[in-house]
Amino acid sequence: MSKHPISLIHPLLTGLFFVSHPGIEAEPASRPNLILILADDQSWGDAGFLRTPDVRTPNLDRLAANGVEFSQGYVSATQCIPSRAGLMTGRDQQHVGIECNPDDDKYDVYHPSA
After folding, report:
1. Do 62 and 56 form a contact (C-beta atoms < 8 A)?
2. What angle do CA 45, 90, 38 make, to 5 degrees?
3. Taking the complete model, does pTM exceed 0.85, yes or no?
4. Does residue 88 sit within a domain?
5. Does position 109 have pLDDT exceeding 60, yes or no?
6. Please, which pLDDT band fits residue 3 given cuts at 50, 70 and 90?
7. How many CB atoms lie within 10 A of CB 42?
8. pLDDT at site 96
9. Does residue 100 sit within a domain?
10. Which residues, including other chains, have CB under 8 Å from residue 113's CB and lie 6 or more apart?
């Protein structure tokens, strides 16, 4: 079955456009600045530069002294073990069956189907 000549006009015009404009180039992709800080049981105020004397965070203190502030943080869960499971597996904690910390008497996190 042959195509109608009109249906070939669009691909032909598109090809002619790109051949006649060789100076159009994509901008090079810039690499994002990404810092992964993994901490267990650390709340928003648990860092030395936030005047918390009991917690020593020399690397975070040094970054803060140079003007680096981290104002956005993301977790897959609000509890440490499900959040860690999400980070380690790349899946939501519900998919791996870890929805809460093991000290929660309401759920058996290691045997969710039991």
Report:
1. no
2. 25
3. no
4. yes
5. no
6. low
7. 15
8. 84
9. yes
10. 97
